Amino acid sequence: MINAELFKEVSPLSDKDCFILIERQKSNFNFPIHIHPECELNYIENAKGAQRIVGDSIEEIDEEELVLITNPKLEHAWMDHNNKSQTIHEITIQFHSDLLTEAFLNKNQMISIQQLFRHAEKGVVFSRETMAKVRPLLKTLTCENDSFYSLVKLLIILHELSIDKGMRELSSRQFVATTEEKGGGNKKLNKVMDYLSQHYAETIRLSTVADLVNMSEASFCRFIKQHTSKSFIDFLTDIRLGAAARALIDSSQSIAEIGYDCGFNNLSNFNRIFKKKKGVTPSEFRDNYRKNKTIV
Fold first, then answer.
1. Over the stretch 40-63, which tens digit does the pLDDT of each residue have?
2. What tens digit of pLDDT does each residue of 240-293 get?
3. The dihedral sign for the CA sequence 183, 187, 190, 192
């Protein structure tokens, strides 16, 4: 459930346009945490130290970054934080979620873009190598006067982004529901994720989950590492933290209550793990959202 106090951005993108590009030179970030139905590709340079908030991911950004968000319910914002620059350059591209139809995305030539859009439902940040490749394309796009060629160039950019092996998802799986919530066609992984999503508040034993998919504990640990790049403990912890982050935003429960309800055995343990994984304490995380939201 999206918090009623969340600021809903009204995009200048019209129904008759495929996309809109906005280029800004600015001295600070002043837009609150917000959502909008349009997909958004956001390129920022010369803003080292600014803070990016995407779902339950809060990170300090480097000199430049490129982020794609395709989920209309995923909260996001960039804040000044430790940024001292007065010459921030930002290129924002917003496009309709149905710009590329499902039938079109199912074509062989479009599969990588289809997968990109699914990953970007949790927000994705791209690698330095891909930014270096896409940066001149973005800057050329800002000068393109022919709307048809602009669309072709946007498709080229999306393709280049889709083949980035170094892209990284930002928001956690448990924090925001996505069409990639389950493990694709892997029935065993889907079964594990369903179980953990329903029982994360309880004490969960490795042996119980391994038995669920008829594996030994050692084989199961290798299976989880192969499919998630995380240990079982880290995978379960991320699910619990995602649920906790969502509750910190959407409920008025105390931090201790949220910690216990999400499977952490005591408040100090919850605070320690949350700070280690998110970079802020649960209290700071909640405050970040409250102070940066505007009533609709």
1. 999 999 999 999 999 999 899 999
2. 998 999 899 888 899 999 999 999 989 999 999 999 988 889 999 888 777 665
3. negative
pLDDT given for residue 3 in this prediction: 46
pLDDT at 292: 63
Rounded distance, CA 123 to CA 41, Å?
10
**Residue 172 near residue 122 (C-beta atoms within 8 A):** yes
DSSP code of residue 31: P
pLDDT in tens, 147-158: 899 999 999 999
CB 127 within 8 A of CB 167: yes
- Please list the alpha-helical segments (H only) found in the chain: 102-105, 111-119, 128-141, 147-162, 187-199, 206-212, 217-228, 232-250, 255-261, 267-278, 282-291
The residues near 103 (Cβ < 8 Å, ≥ 6 apart) are none
What is the DSSP secondary structure assignment for residue 7, as one 8-state letter? E
CA–CA separation, 253 vs 260, rounded Å?
11
> Is the pTM here over 0.85, yes or no?
no
Q: List all residues 6 or more positions away from 43 whose beta carbon is below 8 Å from its beta carbon.
A: 64, 65, 66, 90, 91, 92, 131, 134, 135, 138
- How many other CB atoms are there within 10 angstroms of residue 213's CB atom? 16
Please tell me what DSSP assigns to residue 69: E
DSSP at 160: H
Q: What is the pLDDT of residue 130?
A: 97
Q: In angstroms, how far apart are the furthest CA atoms of the chain?
A: 61
- Pick from 36, 44, 79, 39: nearest CA to 63: 44
Q: What is the CA radius of gyration of the chain?
A: 20
Give the separation between CA 276 and CA 106, rounded to whole angstroms. Answer: 39
